[in-house]
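We include this case.
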Amino acid sequence: MLGNFNLIISTYRNRENDCISEVWFTLKDLGIGKINVSKTGLPGLIVARIDKNPIEVVEKIRELAETNPWNFHFILKIVPIETVIETNLDKIKSVALKFAEEKIGPEETYKIDPVIRLSTLRRSEVIEAIAPYIKNKVNLENPDKILRIEIIGSLTGISVLKPQHILSIVKIRREKRVH
């Protein structure tokens, strides 16, 4: 698995290779020069490293998906990652609090969203290590910012994102069907 990823992509089980191709072609179409994509060893989960700001790239992919979500056959969800560190609760807490202070405005609400795979850390443990030290109001339903903590075994990706920066192709398709 790629050690310094900045995108986490979900796909269907056993369709990882197809998803890797789709990610690669989508990113090439957006003019991304350097792309590394890798399986994680987990079904339906791949990671990528690009040489551009992952949040801005996800915004561009969202524009494509909102125009025609059915052009995406294998990409289900994309989460941009701002930094990758070793999975260690003290390090996660330290980086998460630094990011929260830098990226969550004083009036903004937030939620902590840990996604844990291949680790004995528990969701509640991660939240309880961080939440007491963030002064902002929590909003679990509609936060201004999401402190996303993606644990994949010995590596942890951390980002502070607006909700729209977590791109769900499935959700966009569902919204298109309703309208």
